[in-house]
Description:
By secondary structure, the protein is an all-alpha fold. The chain has helices at residues 3-11, 16-37, 40-57, 66-88, 103-106, 112-117, 119-131, 134-144, 150-157, 161-181. The termini are far apart.
Amino acid sequence: xxxxxxxxxxxxxxxxxxxxxxxxxxxxxxxxxxxxxxxxxxxxxxxxxxxxxxxxxxxxxxxxxxxxxxxxxxxxxxxxxxxxxxxxxxxxxxxxxxxxxxxxxxxxxxxxxxxxxxxxxxxxxxxxxxxxxxxxxxxxxxxxxxxxxxxxxxxxxxxxxxxxxxxxxxxxxxxxxxxxxxxxxxx
Length: 187
């Protein structure tokens, strides 16, 4: 079932939409949540919470790219769960993620986590992702959205670790050029 049909089911309040989401995107949702939480039970709970959140958000919202909308919801819920879990333990409440590598694209005067959440930058990044070949987009998202290591990405997609590193590096350089053009790079 394609995404437009799933969104239509959500607008009709048809509960089968959640099952279609689970079948189509469940494995990737779990990977994203697990990449943040590093705990199977917490990751499963975050994914379940994301389905509930999607059910409550659509309608009235109508996402342009359903999987990106779902993945962002999963990631945000996983980050909140991570922060809540680790605040109690008096640890730092930021996610240790390879996203710091993207700071070289944006520059040191900006707080990357704050900018990442801004709508305009999100739209630019979403447009950028649409320009990548499917394999390059998957590797980029695995690295920076699901917090996966290069070797994990290589294993998951059947590539060599060298190919993954090169693809992610090239994609990051393309993103940097786009952000320079859009006025986000100050380096």
